[in-house]
Amino acid sequence: MGPEVGTAAKPRGIASAALAKLTETARDRGGLTVGDALASVGEASFGFAMLMLALPALIPIPGPFGMVFGSALAIVALQFAVGVGSLWLPSILRNCKVSASAFAALQRHADPIVRRIERIIRPGRLKAFTGPALPYVLALPVFALAIAIALPIPFGNILPVIAVCVIAIGLIERDGLIVLLGTLLTLFALVVTAALLHGAAIFMSTL
Questions:
Q1: Cα dihedral sign, 131-133-136-141
Q2: Of the candidates 64, 67, 55, 60, which has an alpha carbon nearest to the alpha carbon of residue 26?
């Protein structure tokens, strides 16, 4: 009898494998600080740093994850914009500890999104959009997304997080088409965020 078609699981991509390893490391150590997590995934890589700092905003548990990690992502993005080689975060952010259970929740909620993006990855497409200068070009749009993630808007950080993830995975996997799609999604996410802010301002003015 031959093997059943479709029973083999699709191998993990680089990003989802790194997320799984990060969750395992957090479990082994009883949690990780933001600085430890960045070091674990390779903080010198803009793609990995973006992914690590954006995904926690998706965790639907109490805590200012969007504000903490969005602020950290904004600081990292500015450093890439000016070409800083070694990333720096204020100690209040770098030493902020995230529990092992929070990392488990992160993987549970973020892994399906990451793996859906990885299914359409084709490394080597549009190489001009994955060159070494791209992090500097993308840093300011990512900074704007990071601010949107940090804002306390109910459900307002979902699109910015997804846009960051698409760009990050495109950079990690060297797929320029995915980076380009993430950049277009960035524009849409920022327009939606601006609309939400405008709506919130109108609502507050009526109180």
A1: negative
A2: 55
